[in-house]
Automatic annotation (TrEMBL):
Localization in the cell: Cell envelope
Source species of the chain: Cryobacterium breve
Signal peptide: 1-24
Family: Belongs to the bacterial solute-binding protein 2 family.
Protein name: Sugar ABC transporter substrate-binding protein
Entries under PROSITE patterns matching the protein: PROKAR_LIPOPROTEIN (PS51257)
UniProt domain Periplasmic binding protein: residue ranges: 42-283
Keywords, in A-Z order: Signal
Length: 323
């Protein structure tokens, strides 16, 4: 209930941003009045690479917010924290009105993020890095607590009566993924073992999962943390001829299809479109009306859960590229 109330408040703020753009007068972050529709430029630099289904949805959300609000939004992404830091510093050099950053490797991008804060650029973190966001000087974080989301996944797996779970991590060094597995282990009441795969090679990921299942027939659940890996795991389960159940984090048309077909129990939905759309809205509102959203605390975009009961509805949005 608290989450629902929080999200209603968030979208109420988004609506205010839209109406604020058409008001008679607005305000910059330093309190100086300006005319309505003042130009706003926002840079987005994530650890997600082009072509990734999840990050394409985040990008779409950010760009749509820019279109709706009349703000200029640039988007770049790279999974290497060194390269991501370079992209952040390049964005700083353009003196944007706001910077949106994901922090899968917080220490790897800390210097660049703190440089933006020192330059007086408002920073909002998204998706990864919730626990370090305030420490680095960001105004708020938009995403989900990965540990809490993992706990929710563990509880649902416990309801299914599982006893031996493999949690498939697809990006080495991604602290958020590790938190998901830790959260699941905290509540599932079963053995949880982490398995490392490479998201860039889903065929190898499928073979790795299949080998684990064949080597240990007691494994009765697979928890994946990315949609492409979820599809690979489904195929691995089929090939291994095991009754192991499958669950995943994140949503795609493929994932909703697996749920509707009864081949997946559930998906944890952190709503990536909101992770792109909301920070652009907040930073535009800050530039044009002087509002600073979050108070140093996170704005949760999840977790929600997609099950057979609501998968058909979510599938419609997933096909549109917004879930």
């Amino acid at each position: 209930m608290k989450l629902k109330i929080s999200l209603l408040a968030v979208f109420g703020v988004a609506a205010l941003a839209l109406t604020g753009c058409t008001g008679a007068a607005t305000s910059t972050g330093d309190g100086v009045g300006s005319s309505a529709g003042e130009p706003v430029t926002i840079a987005v630099v994530t650890h997600g690479t082009a072509g990734d289904a999840f990050w394409d949805v985040v990008k779409s959300g950010a760009e749509q917010a820019g279109t709706d609000l009349g703000a200029t939004v640039t988007y770049q992404g790279d999974g290497d924290p060194v390269v991501q830091s370079q992209l952040i510093e390049a964005a700083i050099a353009t003196d944007p009105d706001g910077l949106i950053v994901s922090m899968a490797n917080p220490d790897g991008v800390r210097g660049a993020v703190e440089k933006a804060v020192a330059a007086g650029i408002p920073v909002i973190t998204i998706n990864s890095g919730l626990e370090r966001s305030l420490e680095f000087g960001a105004q708020t974080h938009i995403g989900q607590s990965e540990f809490i989301a993992g706990q929710g996944a563990g509880e649902k797996l416990a309801e299914a009566g599982v006893s031996n779970v493999i949690c498939v991590i697809h990006e080495a060094g991604n602290s958020g993924l590790e938190e998901r597995c830790k959260g699941a282990a905290d509540t599932v009441g079963a053995i949880v073992s982490n398995v490392q795969v490479d998201v860039a090679n889903l065929a190898d990921a499928q073979n790795t999962i299949k080998s684990k299942l064949l080597a240990d027939p007691s494994i009765d659940a697979v928890l994946t943390l990315q949609t492409g890996v979820a599809v690979a795991a489904s195929q691995a389960i089929d090939e291994a001829r095991t009754p192991a159940v499958l669950a995943t984090f994140d949503v795609s048309a493929d994932v909703t299809g697996l749920i509707l077909d009864g081949r997946m129990l559930f998906a944890v939905d952190q709503q990536p479109y909101s992770q792109g759309y909301l920070p652009v809205t907040f930073l535009t509102l800050q530039k044009r009306n002087g509002d600073v959203v979050g108070g140093g605390l996170p704005v949760y975009s999840g977790p929600g859960f997609v099950t057979k009961e609501n998968a058909a509805e979510v599938a419609t949005f997933a096909e549109n590229g917004t879930r």
